[in-house]
Amino acid sequence: MTTDAPPATPGRWRPATIARIAPLTPHVRSFFLSIDPPPRFQAGQHMDVRLTAPDGYQAQRSYSIASAPGSTVELTIERLADGEVSPFFHDVAVAGDEIEVRGPIGGHFVWQPAMGGPVLLIGGGSGVVPLMSMARHHAAAAPAVPMRLLFSARTWDEVIWRDELLALDARGDGFGLTLALTRDAPRRPGDHGRRVDAAMVADLLAGWPAPPAHVFVCGANPFVGVAVDAVLAAGVPPRRVRTERYGG
Amino acid sequence: MTTRGFTGRRPGQDTAGRLPPGQYLTQDFPVLSAGPTPRVRTENWTFTLKVGPRPVAKWTWAEFGALPRTRMTRDIHCVTKWSKFDTAWEGVSIDDLLLAAGIAAPMPYTLAHSVDGYSTNVPTADLIGGKAMVALAYDGAPIEADHGGPARLLVPHLYFWKSAKWINGLQFTERDTAGFWELRGYHLYGDPFREQRYSDD
Ligand SMILES: Cc1cc2nc3c(=O)[nH]c(=O)nc-3n(C[C@H](O)[C@H](O)[C@H](O)COP(=O)(O)OP(=O)(O)OC[C@H]3O[C@@H](n4cnc5c(N)ncnc54)[C@H](O)[C@@H]3O)c2cc1C
Prior knowledge:
Chain A is α/β, with parallel strands linked by helices. Chain A has helices spanning 86-92, 129-141, 162-170, 198-206, 221-233, and strands at 14-25, 28-34, 46-52, 58-64, 73-78, 98-105, 119-124, 147-153, 175-181, 214-219, 241-245. Chain A is built from five helices and eleven strands; from the N terminus they run βββββαββαβαβαβαβ.
Protein backbone atom coordinates (compact mmCIF):
# COMPACT_ATOMS: atom_id res chain seq x y z
CA MET A 1 0.00 0.00 0.00
CA THR A 2 3.03 2.23 -0.32
CA THR A 3 2.02 3.28 -3.81
CA ASP A 4 -1.08 5.12 -2.65
CA ALA A 5 -1.82 8.53 -4.04
CA PRO A 6 -1.38 11.57 -1.80
CA PRO A 7 -4.43 12.52 0.27
CA ALA A 8 -7.33 13.88 -1.67
CA THR A 9 -8.67 17.27 -0.67
CA PRO A 10 -12.25 17.24 -1.88
CA GLY A 11 -12.81 20.90 -1.19
CA ARG A 12 -16.20 22.55 -0.68
CA TRP A 13 -19.54 21.98 -2.36
CA ARG A 14 -19.72 23.80 -5.66
CA PRO A 15 -22.18 24.05 -8.50
CA ALA A 16 -21.86 21.82 -11.53
CA THR A 17 -23.90 22.09 -14.71
CA ILE A 18 -25.03 18.97 -16.51
CA ALA A 19 -23.60 19.81 -19.92
CA ARG A 20 -24.67 16.66 -21.73
CA ILE A 21 -26.47 13.39 -21.03
CA ALA A 22 -25.61 10.24 -22.95
CA PRO A 23 -27.68 7.03 -22.73
CA LEU A 24 -25.30 4.04 -22.67
CA THR A 25 -27.57 1.07 -21.95
CA PRO A 26 -31.28 0.76 -21.08
CA HIS A 27 -30.53 1.51 -17.41
CA VAL A 28 -27.28 3.46 -17.52
CA ARG A 29 -26.60 7.04 -18.54
CA SER A 30 -23.57 9.29 -18.46
CA PHE A 31 -23.76 12.85 -17.15
CA PHE A 32 -20.98 15.17 -18.32
CA LEU A 33 -20.46 17.95 -15.81
CA SER A 34 -19.11 21.37 -16.42
CA ILE A 35 -17.40 22.54 -13.25
CA ASP A 36 -15.49 25.78 -12.86
CA PRO A 37 -12.57 25.36 -12.40
CA PRO A 38 -12.48 21.79 -13.75
CA PRO A 39 -11.29 19.45 -10.95
CA ARG A 40 -8.04 17.58 -11.34
CA PHE A 41 -8.71 13.94 -10.61
CA GLN A 42 -7.06 10.54 -10.76
CA ALA A 43 -8.40 7.39 -12.38
CA GLY A 44 -10.56 5.60 -9.82
CA GLN A 45 -11.68 8.56 -7.73
CA HIS A 46 -15.27 9.58 -7.15
CA MET A 47 -17.34 12.72 -6.65
CA ASP A 48 -20.01 13.36 -4.06
CA VAL A 49 -23.25 14.73 -5.47
CA ARG A 50 -25.81 16.74 -3.51
CA LEU A 51 -29.41 17.50 -4.47
CA THR A 52 -31.58 20.01 -2.62
CA ALA A 53 -35.39 20.07 -2.47
CA PRO A 54 -37.33 23.36 -2.28
CA ASP A 55 -37.75 23.03 1.53
CA GLY A 56 -34.00 22.59 2.03
CA TYR A 57 -34.03 18.79 2.36
CA GLN A 58 -30.84 17.36 0.84
CA ALA A 59 -29.67 13.99 -0.42
CA GLN A 60 -26.06 13.02 -1.11
CA ARG A 61 -24.55 10.10 -3.00
CA SER A 62 -21.12 9.12 -4.31
CA TYR A 63 -20.44 8.48 -8.02
CA SER A 64 -17.20 7.29 -9.56
CA ILE A 65 -15.65 9.31 -12.36
CA ALA A 66 -15.68 7.42 -15.67
CA SER A 67 -13.60 9.79 -17.77
CA ALA A 68 -9.81 9.83 -18.01
CA PRO A 69 -7.85 12.34 -15.93
CA GLY A 70 -7.56 15.63 -17.78
CA SER A 71 -10.99 15.45 -19.39
CA THR A 72 -14.51 16.56 -18.44
CA VAL A 73 -15.97 14.82 -15.39
CA GLU A 74 -18.28 12.05 -16.59
CA LEU A 75 -20.53 10.43 -13.98
CA THR A 76 -22.20 7.24 -15.10
CA ILE A 77 -25.29 6.32 -13.17
CA GLU A 78 -27.39 3.20 -13.17
CA ARG A 79 -31.09 3.69 -12.50
CA LEU A 80 -32.18 1.75 -9.43
CA ALA A 81 -35.95 1.32 -9.19
CA ASP A 82 -37.24 2.97 -6.01
CA GLY A 83 -33.93 4.72 -5.46
CA GLU A 84 -33.93 8.32 -4.29
CA VAL A 85 -31.12 9.86 -6.31
CA SER A 86 -30.45 7.70 -9.38
CA PRO A 87 -34.06 7.98 -10.69
CA PHE A 88 -33.76 11.77 -10.39
CA PHE A 89 -30.80 11.69 -12.77
CA HIS A 90 -32.63 9.40 -15.21
CA ASP A 91 -36.17 10.76 -15.08
CA VAL A 92 -35.84 14.43 -14.16
CA ALA A 93 -32.41 15.86 -14.98
CA VAL A 94 -31.86 17.49 -18.37
CA ALA A 95 -28.86 19.21 -19.93
CA GLY A 96 -28.47 22.67 -18.42
CA ASP A 97 -29.59 21.64 -14.93
CA GLU A 98 -27.40 22.53 -11.99
CA ILE A 99 -26.45 20.20 -9.15
CA GLU A 100 -23.79 20.43 -6.44
CA VAL A 101 -20.61 18.36 -6.27
CA ARG A 102 -17.57 17.83 -4.07
CA GLY A 103 -14.41 16.09 -4.99
CA PRO A 104 -12.49 14.34 -6.31
CA ILE A 105 -12.44 11.97 -3.34
CA GLY A 106 -10.47 8.83 -2.60
CA GLY A 107 -6.76 8.14 -2.43
CA HIS A 108 -6.72 4.35 -2.37
CA PHE A 109 -8.79 2.97 -5.24
CA VAL A 110 -6.61 4.78 -7.74
CA TRP A 111 -4.36 3.69 -10.60
CA GLN A 112 -1.58 5.86 -11.97
CA PRO A 113 0.77 4.92 -14.83
CA ALA A 114 3.73 5.20 -12.44
CA MET A 115 2.31 2.24 -10.52
CA GLY A 116 2.85 0.11 -13.63
CA GLY A 117 1.39 -3.36 -14.08
CA PRO A 118 0.31 -5.93 -14.88
CA VAL A 119 -3.09 -4.65 -13.80
CA LEU A 120 -6.23 -6.74 -13.45
CA LEU A 121 -9.52 -4.84 -13.33
CA ILE A 122 -12.70 -6.69 -12.34
CA GLY A 123 -16.02 -4.88 -12.53
CA GLY A 124 -19.62 -5.95 -12.10
CA GLY A 125 -22.35 -3.82 -13.71
CA SER A 126 -21.90 -0.15 -12.88
CA GLY A 127 -18.82 -1.17 -10.88
CA VAL A 128 -16.99 -0.84 -14.17
CA VAL A 129 -17.18 2.97 -13.95
CA PRO A 130 -13.91 3.74 -12.08
CA LEU A 131 -12.21 0.93 -14.04
CA MET A 132 -13.26 2.65 -17.28
CA SER A 133 -11.40 5.73 -16.15
CA MET A 134 -8.33 3.55 -15.59
CA ALA A 135 -8.70 1.87 -19.00
CA ARG A 136 -9.07 5.24 -20.74
CA HIS A 137 -6.13 6.68 -18.82
CA HIS A 138 -4.10 3.61 -19.76
CA ALA A 139 -4.94 4.06 -23.46
CA ALA A 140 -3.94 7.73 -23.35
CA ALA A 141 -0.92 7.64 -21.07
CA ALA A 142 0.58 4.16 -20.71
CA PRO A 143 -0.78 1.81 -23.41
CA ALA A 144 2.11 -0.66 -23.15
CA VAL A 145 1.38 -1.56 -19.52
CA PRO A 146 -0.39 -4.94 -19.42
CA MET A 147 -3.95 -4.34 -18.24
CA ARG A 148 -6.98 -6.62 -18.52
CA LEU A 149 -10.57 -5.81 -17.70
CA LEU A 150 -12.83 -8.67 -16.67
CA PHE A 151 -16.29 -7.15 -16.94
CA SER A 152 -19.41 -8.92 -15.73
CA ALA A 153 -22.74 -7.75 -17.14
CA ARG A 154 -26.11 -9.41 -17.40
CA THR A 155 -26.40 -9.33 -21.18
CA TRP A 156 -24.47 -8.20 -24.26
CA ASP A 157 -26.71 -5.13 -24.46
CA GLU A 158 -25.97 -4.21 -20.86
CA VAL A 159 -22.21 -4.05 -21.45
CA ILE A 160 -21.63 -0.38 -20.67
CA TRP A 161 -19.27 1.29 -23.23
CA ARG A 162 -19.34 -1.91 -25.29
CA ASP A 163 -18.18 -0.33 -28.55
CA GLU A 164 -15.45 1.70 -26.88
CA LEU A 165 -14.20 -1.32 -24.93
CA LEU A 166 -14.19 -3.51 -28.05
CA ALA A 167 -12.20 -0.79 -29.82
CA LEU A 168 -9.71 -0.56 -26.95
CA ASP A 169 -9.38 -4.35 -27.06
CA ALA A 170 -8.72 -4.24 -30.79
CA ARG A 171 -5.88 -1.76 -30.50
CA GLY A 172 -3.49 -4.59 -29.76
CA ASP A 173 -1.63 -2.67 -27.05
CA GLY A 174 -1.34 -3.75 -23.42
CA PHE A 175 -5.12 -3.64 -22.89
CA GLY A 176 -7.40 -6.65 -23.10
CA LEU A 177 -11.09 -7.25 -22.43
CA THR A 178 -12.84 -10.36 -21.14
CA LEU A 179 -16.62 -10.32 -20.79
CA ALA A 180 -18.59 -12.50 -18.39
CA LEU A 181 -22.28 -12.37 -19.34
CA THR A 182 -24.48 -13.80 -16.61
CA ARG A 183 -27.73 -14.06 -18.59
CA ASP A 184 -26.51 -14.26 -22.16
CA ALA A 185 -24.35 -16.45 -24.35
CA PRO A 186 -20.76 -15.33 -24.90
CA ARG A 187 -20.25 -13.70 -28.31
CA ARG A 188 -16.47 -13.62 -28.61
CA PRO A 189 -13.77 -16.24 -28.12
CA GLY A 190 -12.45 -16.02 -24.57
CA ASP A 191 -15.65 -14.48 -23.20
CA HIS A 192 -17.86 -16.37 -20.77
CA GLY A 193 -21.57 -17.02 -20.32
CA ARG A 194 -21.53 -17.26 -16.55
CA ARG A 195 -20.72 -15.37 -13.36
CA VAL A 196 -17.15 -14.58 -12.38
CA ASP A 197 -15.69 -17.55 -10.51
CA ALA A 198 -12.34 -18.89 -9.37
CA ALA A 199 -11.84 -21.07 -12.46
CA MET A 200 -12.42 -18.05 -14.73
CA VAL A 201 -9.87 -15.89 -12.93
CA ALA A 202 -7.34 -18.75 -12.72
CA ASP A 203 -7.81 -19.34 -16.45
CA LEU A 204 -7.31 -15.68 -17.24
CA LEU A 205 -4.19 -15.34 -15.08
CA ALA A 206 -2.70 -18.56 -16.45
CA GLY A 207 -1.96 -16.75 -19.69
CA TRP A 208 -0.03 -13.98 -17.94
CA PRO A 209 3.76 -13.78 -17.93
CA ALA A 210 3.65 -12.42 -14.36
CA PRO A 211 0.96 -12.29 -11.69
CA PRO A 212 -0.89 -8.97 -11.46
CA ALA A 213 0.89 -6.26 -9.48
CA HIS A 214 -2.42 -4.47 -8.89
CA VAL A 215 -5.96 -5.78 -8.82
CA PHE A 216 -8.96 -3.43 -8.65
CA VAL A 217 -12.37 -4.92 -7.95
CA CYS A 218 -15.53 -2.83 -7.99
CA GLY A 219 -19.24 -3.50 -7.86
CA ALA A 220 -22.02 -4.43 -5.48
CA ASN A 221 -20.78 -6.06 -2.30
CA PRO A 222 -21.69 -9.70 -3.12
CA PHE A 223 -19.96 -9.37 -6.50
CA VAL A 224 -16.82 -7.92 -4.92
CA GLY A 225 -16.76 -10.73 -2.34
CA VAL A 226 -16.93 -13.46 -4.98
CA ALA A 227 -14.43 -11.79 -7.31
CA VAL A 228 -11.90 -11.14 -4.54
CA ASP A 229 -12.16 -14.76 -3.35
CA ALA A 230 -11.48 -15.86 -6.93
CA VAL A 231 -8.42 -13.61 -7.16
CA LEU A 232 -7.03 -14.82 -3.84
CA ALA A 233 -7.70 -18.45 -4.83
CA ALA A 234 -5.54 -17.82 -7.91
CA GLY A 235 -2.65 -17.02 -5.57
CA VAL A 236 -2.58 -13.22 -5.74
CA PRO A 237 -1.34 -11.74 -2.43
CA PRO A 238 -4.19 -9.90 -0.63
CA ARG A 239 -2.16 -6.68 -0.37
CA ARG A 240 -2.27 -6.27 -4.15
CA VAL A 241 -6.06 -6.20 -4.20
CA ARG A 242 -8.05 -3.00 -3.78
CA THR A 243 -11.81 -2.94 -3.56
CA GLU A 244 -14.59 -0.42 -3.95
CA ARG A 245 -18.05 -1.51 -2.84
CA TYR A 246 -21.17 0.30 -4.00
CA GLY A 247 -23.39 -0.92 -1.21
CA GLY A 248 -25.35 -3.95 -0.09
CA MET B 1 -29.23 25.97 -4.01
CA THR B 2 -32.44 24.18 -4.97
CA THR B 3 -32.13 21.42 -7.54
CA ARG B 4 -34.81 21.77 -10.20
CA GLY B 5 -37.36 18.99 -9.96
CA PHE B 6 -35.85 17.24 -6.94
CA THR B 7 -38.28 16.42 -4.15
CA GLY B 8 -36.45 13.59 -2.39
CA ARG B 9 -37.61 10.67 -0.36
CA ARG B 10 -38.15 11.98 3.16
CA PRO B 11 -37.01 9.98 6.10
CA GLY B 12 -39.90 9.24 8.49
CA GLN B 13 -40.72 11.39 11.51
CA ASP B 14 -39.03 8.85 13.79
CA THR B 15 -35.64 9.67 12.26
CA ALA B 16 -35.82 13.35 13.22
CA GLY B 17 -32.71 14.28 15.17
CA ARG B 18 -31.27 10.78 14.74
CA LEU B 19 -30.20 10.96 11.12
CA PRO B 20 -27.04 13.08 10.67
CA PRO B 21 -26.87 15.54 7.76
CA GLY B 22 -26.29 13.97 4.34
CA GLN B 23 -27.15 10.45 5.56
CA TYR B 24 -29.99 8.15 4.51
CA LEU B 25 -31.50 5.34 6.51
CA THR B 26 -31.00 1.76 5.35
CA GLN B 27 -32.34 -1.55 6.63
CA ASP B 28 -29.42 -3.42 4.99
CA PHE B 29 -25.93 -3.67 6.36
CA PRO B 30 -23.67 -2.50 3.52
CA VAL B 31 -19.94 -3.26 3.55
CA LEU B 32 -17.04 -0.84 3.19
CA SER B 33 -13.44 -1.98 3.00
CA ALA B 34 -10.29 -1.13 1.11
CA GLY B 35 -9.34 -4.67 0.21
CA PRO B 36 -10.05 -8.37 0.65
CA THR B 37 -11.87 -9.58 3.74
CA PRO B 38 -9.28 -11.34 5.91
CA ARG B 39 -10.31 -14.76 7.21
CA VAL B 40 -9.16 -14.53 10.81
CA ARG B 41 -8.84 -17.81 12.71
CA THR B 42 -9.67 -17.30 16.36
CA GLU B 43 -7.04 -19.88 17.42
CA ASN B 44 -4.37 -17.58 15.97
CA TRP B 45 -5.94 -14.30 17.08
CA THR B 46 -4.48 -12.28 19.93
CA PHE B 47 -5.30 -8.81 21.19
CA THR B 48 -2.47 -6.53 22.33
CA LEU B 49 -2.72 -3.33 24.34
CA LYS B 50 0.25 -1.01 23.86
CA VAL B 51 1.35 2.20 25.52
CA GLY B 52 3.38 3.87 22.82
CA PRO B 53 5.60 1.10 21.42
CA ARG B 54 5.43 -0.96 24.65
CA PRO B 55 3.01 -3.92 24.94
CA VAL B 56 1.34 -3.86 28.36
CA ALA B 57 -1.24 -6.63 28.03
CA LYS B 58 -2.06 -9.44 25.63
CA TRP B 59 -5.03 -11.82 25.41
CA THR B 60 -5.74 -14.94 23.40
CA TRP B 61 -9.23 -15.44 21.96
CA ALA B 62 -10.21 -17.63 24.92
CA GLU B 63 -8.83 -15.16 27.45
CA PHE B 64 -10.50 -12.24 25.71
CA GLY B 65 -13.81 -14.08 25.65
CA ALA B 66 -13.62 -14.52 29.43
CA LEU B 67 -13.52 -10.73 30.05
CA PRO B 68 -16.71 -9.03 31.29
CA ARG B 69 -19.29 -8.42 28.56
CA THR B 70 -21.18 -5.25 27.71
CA ARG B 71 -24.17 -4.78 25.40
CA MET B 72 -24.80 -1.67 23.34
CA THR B 73 -27.63 -0.85 20.95
CA ARG B 74 -26.69 2.15 18.85
CA ASP B 75 -27.24 3.96 15.54
CA ILE B 76 -24.28 3.70 13.15
CA HIS B 77 -23.31 6.08 10.35
CA CYS B 78 -21.06 5.23 7.39
CA VAL B 79 -19.18 7.97 5.54
CA THR B 80 -20.52 6.51 2.26
CA LYS B 81 -23.88 8.03 3.39
CA TRP B 82 -25.90 5.16 4.89
CA SER B 83 -27.02 5.03 8.48
CA LYS B 84 -28.52 2.07 10.30
CA PHE B 85 -30.52 2.44 13.50
CA ASP B 86 -30.59 0.29 16.63
CA THR B 87 -27.72 -2.06 15.80
CA ALA B 88 -27.17 -4.46 18.73
CA TRP B 89 -23.63 -5.35 19.73
CA GLU B 90 -21.97 -7.28 22.51
CA GLY B 91 -18.33 -7.23 23.50
CA VAL B 92 -15.74 -5.96 25.93
CA SER B 93 -15.87 -2.27 26.77
CA ILE B 94 -12.59 -0.37 26.59
CA ASP B 95 -13.10 0.50 30.27
CA ASP B 96 -13.15 -3.19 31.18
CA LEU B 97 -10.14 -3.82 28.96
CA LEU B 98 -8.14 -1.16 30.80
CA LEU B 99 -9.32 -2.54 34.11
CA ALA B 100 -8.21 -6.04 33.13
CA ALA B 101 -4.82 -4.66 32.09
CA GLY B 102 -4.58 -2.85 35.41
CA ILE B 103 -3.98 0.59 33.87
CA ALA B 104 -5.81 3.88 33.52
CA ALA B 105 -6.07 5.50 30.08
CA PRO B 106 -2.45 6.62 29.78
CA MET B 107 -2.32 8.91 26.76
CA PRO B 108 -4.74 11.26 24.96
CA TYR B 109 -4.89 9.41 21.60
CA THR B 110 -5.35 5.84 20.49
CA LEU B 111 -4.61 3.94 17.30
CA ALA B 112 -6.71 0.87 16.63
CA HIS B 113 -4.81 -1.79 14.68
CA SER B 114 -6.24 -4.56 12.51
CA VAL B 115 -4.86 -7.86 11.25
CA ASP B 116 -4.76 -6.55 7.66
CA GLY B 117 -2.52 -3.60 8.54
CA TYR B 118 -5.41 -1.12 8.70
CA SER B 119 -5.30 1.41 11.49
CA THR B 120 -7.51 4.28 12.59
CA ASN B 121 -7.04 7.02 15.17
CA VAL B 122 -9.52 7.96 17.90
CA PRO B 123 -9.08 10.28 20.87
CA THR B 124 -8.84 8.11 23.99
CA ALA B 125 -11.66 10.10 25.61
CA ASP B 126 -13.98 8.81 22.86
CA LEU B 127 -13.22 5.20 23.77
CA ILE B 128 -13.69 5.28 27.55
CA GLY B 129 -16.60 6.15 29.81
CA GLY B 130 -18.82 3.48 28.23
CA LYS B 131 -18.56 4.99 24.74
CA ALA B 132 -16.84 2.13 22.90
CA MET B 133 -16.08 -1.58 22.93
CA VAL B 134 -14.29 -4.36 21.14
CA ALA B 135 -17.37 -6.07 19.74
CA LEU B 136 -17.50 -9.86 19.44
CA ALA B 137 -21.16 -10.32 18.52
CA TYR B 138 -23.70 -8.52 16.34
CA ASP B 139 -27.42 -9.16 16.64
CA GLY B 140 -26.83 -12.12 18.95
CA ALA B 141 -24.38 -13.98 16.69
CA PRO B 142 -20.62 -13.92 16.05
CA ILE B 143 -19.72 -11.01 13.74
CA GLU B 144 -19.44 -12.10 10.09
CA ALA B 145 -16.01 -11.71 8.47
CA ASP B 146 -17.36 -9.07 6.01
CA HIS B 147 -18.49 -6.99 8.96
CA GLY B 148 -15.19 -7.24 10.81
CA GLY B 149 -15.41 -10.54 12.68
CA PRO B 150 -14.23 -12.13 14.80
CA ALA B 151 -13.63 -8.83 16.61
CA ARG B 152 -14.12 -5.20 15.61
CA LEU B 153 -13.93 -1.89 17.37
CA LEU B 154 -17.27 -0.18 17.96
CA VAL B 155 -17.18 3.61 18.37
CA PRO B 156 -20.74 4.27 17.23
CA HIS B 157 -20.78 8.04 17.73
CA LEU B 158 -18.11 8.51 15.03
CA TYR B 159 -18.32 7.63 11.32
CA PHE B 160 -18.14 3.88 11.04
CA TRP B 161 -14.68 3.64 9.45
CA LYS B 162 -13.42 4.49 12.96
CA SER B 163 -14.94 1.21 14.16
CA ALA B 164 -11.96 -0.76 12.83
CA LYS B 165 -12.78 -4.23 11.52
CA TRP B 166 -10.64 -7.30 12.29
CA ILE B 167 -9.11 -5.48 15.25
CA ASN B 168 -6.17 -7.06 17.05
CA GLY B 169 -4.88 -4.26 19.22
CA LEU B 170 -5.12 -0.78 20.66
CA GLN B 171 -2.11 1.48 20.99
CA PHE B 172 -2.15 4.59 23.12
CA THR B 173 -0.20 7.51 21.65
CA GLU B 174 0.86 10.95 22.86
CA ARG B 175 -0.06 12.57 19.52
CA ASP B 176 -2.96 12.22 17.12
CA THR B 177 -1.56 10.00 14.32
CA ALA B 178 -3.54 9.62 11.10
CA GLY B 179 -4.61 6.05 10.31
CA PHE B 180 -5.31 4.36 6.96
CA TRP B 181 -8.31 6.35 5.70
CA GLU B 182 -7.22 9.51 7.53
CA LEU B 183 -4.00 9.45 5.48
CA ARG B 184 -6.17 9.18 2.38
CA GLY B 185 -8.20 12.32 2.83
CA TYR B 186 -10.72 11.37 5.52
CA HIS B 187 -11.28 13.42 8.66
CA LEU B 188 -9.08 12.95 11.73
CA TYR B 189 -12.08 12.90 14.11
CA GLY B 190 -15.17 12.04 12.03
CA ASP B 191 -18.24 13.31 13.89
CA PRO B 192 -21.29 12.48 11.70
CA PHE B 193 -23.45 15.18 13.26
CA ARG B 194 -20.86 17.83 12.33
CA GLU B 195 -20.46 16.06 8.96
CA GLN B 196 -16.71 15.67 9.36
CA ARG B 197 -16.23 13.41 6.35
CA TYR B 198 -13.05 14.67 4.74
CA SER B 199 -9.83 16.23 5.99
CA ASP B 200 -10.92 19.81 5.31
CA ASP B 201 -14.42 19.52 6.84
C1 LIG C 1 -17.56 5.24 -3.69
C2 LIG C 1 -18.85 4.95 -4.42
C3 LIG C 1 -18.92 5.10 -5.80
C4 LIG C 1 -20.10 4.84 -6.50
N1 LIG C 1 -20.12 4.99 -7.85
C5 LIG C 1 -21.24 4.72 -8.54
C6 LIG C 1 -21.27 4.85 -9.98
O1 LIG C 1 -20.27 5.19 -10.62
N2 LIG C 1 -22.44 4.58 -10.62
C7 LIG C 1 -23.57 4.19 -9.93
O2 LIG C 1 -24.61 3.98 -10.59
N3 LIG C 1 -23.57 4.06 -8.58
C8 LIG C 1 -22.45 4.33 -7.88
N4 LIG C 1 -22.44 4.22 -6.50
C9 LIG C 1 -23.72 3.94 -5.80
C10 LIG C 1 -24.46 5.26 -5.57
O3 LIG C 1 -23.74 6.05 -4.64
C11 LIG C 1 -25.87 5.08 -5.01
O4 LIG C 1 -25.81 4.24 -3.89
C12 LIG C 1 -26.84 4.52 -6.01
O5 LIG C 1 -26.95 5.37 -7.13
C13 LIG C 1 -28.22 4.32 -5.38
O6 LIG C 1 -28.71 5.54 -4.91
P1 LIG C 1 -30.26 5.87 -4.98
O7 LIG C 1 -30.50 7.11 -4.23
O8 LIG C 1 -30.77 5.81 -6.38
O9 LIG C 1 -30.90 4.62 -4.25
P2 LIG C 1 -31.26 4.56 -2.70
O10 LIG C 1 -32.42 5.39 -2.43
O11 LIG C 1 -30.04 4.79 -1.93
O12 LIG C 1 -31.65 3.03 -2.63
C14 LIG C 1 -30.68 2.00 -2.89
C15 LIG C 1 -31.41 0.70 -3.14
O13 LIG C 1 -32.26 0.41 -2.08
C16 LIG C 1 -33.57 0.24 -2.55
N5 LIG C 1 -34.46 0.94 -1.63
C17 LIG C 1 -34.76 2.24 -1.62
N6 LIG C 1 -35.58 2.53 -0.63
C18 LIG C 1 -35.83 1.40 0.04
C19 LIG C 1 -36.61 1.07 1.16
N7 LIG C 1 -37.33 1.98 1.83
N8 LIG C 1 -36.59 -0.22 1.58
C20 LIG C 1 -35.88 -1.12 0.92
N9 LIG C 1 -35.13 -0.87 -0.16
C21 LIG C 1 -35.11 0.37 -0.60
C22 LIG C 1 -33.66 0.88 -3.90
O14 LIG C 1 -34.58 0.21 -4.74
C23 LIG C 1 -32.27 0.73 -4.38
O15 LIG C 1 -32.14 -0.49 -5.05
C24 LIG C 1 -21.25 4.44 -5.79
C25 LIG C 1 -21.20 4.28 -4.41
C26 LIG C 1 -20.02 4.53 -3.71
C27 LIG C 1 -19.98 4.34 -2.23
